[in-house]
Amino acid sequence: MKSNVVIVGGGHAGAHLARSLSGTLDPSRYNLILVNERPFAIHLLAGARMTVTTEGNIDSLALIPYDKLFINGNGRLVVDRVTAIEETAPGQGRVLVLQSGERLPYAVVVLACGFSWSGPLDFPYSHEDMRAHLANWRKRYARAQHVVLIGGGAVGIETAGELRDMYPDKKITIVQADTMLLNATYPEKYRREVERRVRARNIDCVFSELTDYVPEYAGIGLTTRSGMALPTADLIVPTFGPRPNTAWIASLGADVLDERGLVRIEPTFEVVGHPGVFAIGDITDCNEQKQAQKYPAHVAVAVPNIMSYLEGRPLTKTYKGSMEIILIPIGKNRGVAYYDLLWGVIVGDWFVRWLKGKDLFVKKTRRARGLAS
User: Fold this and answer.
1) How far, in Å, CA of 50 to CA of 35, rounded?
2) How is the chain split among helix, strand and coil, in percent rounded to 5?
3) Candidates 1.10.510.10, 3.30.1330.50, 3.50.50.60, 1.10.760.10; correct CATH number of 3-37+80-117+242-311?
4) Entry's Gene3D superfamilies (predicted)?
5) What CA–CA distance (Å, rounded) separates 303 from 20?
6) What pTM, to 2 d.p., does this model score?
7) What DSSP state is assigned to residue 356?
8) N or C: at which end does the chain have fewer Cβ atoms within 10 angstroms?
9) Mean pLDDT confidence for 265-274
10) What is the largest CA-CA distance in the chain?
């Protein structure tokens, strides 16, 4: 009988790995299985734009089918949710427990289940519900007079930029708990430049303020924890950081997750203390920012190590980390990028518009999944 190689999660990291393994694994010896909660992938880099506008048919392009993902058809998709992972005694087999009740045995499993977001990026699981979700947020943005975005990271900034493109006269405010936009991974000079460009688009920024509650539906007014009032706010949108989808992975043992809920891995991407269990992408405890552009490098290390494990050889390929790069569009034609090279390189509107702002890497990602465009 053939052995199963299972990938849990079909986002940027998991889909890239699935495509690579489909061209590497011997289909006469292994079944490649991708388990994902949705029958389609979501190109999250386009998430802010497609919740604001239909322009450019962005939602249809950013919801990517898996039907061309596997090279020569060497793999299959299982639409389900993993609820537990079990490693029984040696020789007794190892299984994933699915929400449907199916128990899926594996020779190797790769955890790539990513993060969960709040608010507009808390996407549903069917095409029908997804269409309704996007239509609902577009209507809410259209009706609002003063949109307040809670969180001044990349999602909050990009959402503000998309809103400003769509609604030139709408009042928009970003509320950030820190003293500057983004986080301390990036130098102050870049963070200040981002703020300058955000304010230049008539987007207000409020710093060092926390909110105790983010209303689910539009109301009137918002008061921060310190007592500062935004009396005209009529749509409060959570755009703060996401949570790792790793609670079920703790079924492997208390040692698997760190205090942030991230998976402890070796430089080979094997989970610490669990041979044959690998993890890549957002959920790993790699000391780096969580970004899709880094995950081809994860895959380039994970694939040879997975093959070595299956063939009984030592795992020798190791991950050395990636350079920190961030490109933040503030609308389709504005933005600012940072490259951690030399003294730190900052590049402005023309570069971000050319590289990312125009289509948010949607076409590039679709081609990487085997689609024509």
Assistant:
1) 25
2) 30, 25, 45
3) 3.50.50.60
4) 3.50.50.100
5) 8
6) 0.95
7) I
8) N
9) 96
10) 66
Average pLDDT of the residues of the chain: 94
Going by C-alpha positions, the residue among 255, 256, 258 that lies closest to residue 278 is 256
* CA–CA gap between residue 238 and residue 122 (Å, rounded): 10
Architecture of the domain whose range is 127-240: 3-Layer(bba) Sandwich (3.50)
Return the H-helix or E-strand segment holding 308.
helix 295-310
**3-37+80-117+242-311 and 127-240 agree in CATH topology:** yes
Q: Which of 324, 282, 256, 234 is nearest to 117 (CA)?
A: 282
Q: Rounded to an integer, what is the distance from CA 109 to the centroid of its chain?
A: 20
Report the pLDDT value the prediction gives residue 1, as an integer from 0 to 100: 82
Residue type, 259: E
Give the pair of three-digit tokens for residue 168: 């030139």
Q: Alpha-carbon distance 3 to 311, whole Å?
A: 12
State yes or no: pLDDT of 86 exceeds 80. Answer: yes
Token duo for residue 141: 């943005």
Residues with Cβ < 8 Å from 326, sequence gap 6 or more?
154, 182, 186, 289, 291, 337, 338
Give residue for tokens 């504005």: 334
Domain ranges (residues) in the chain: 3-37+80-117+242-311, 127-240
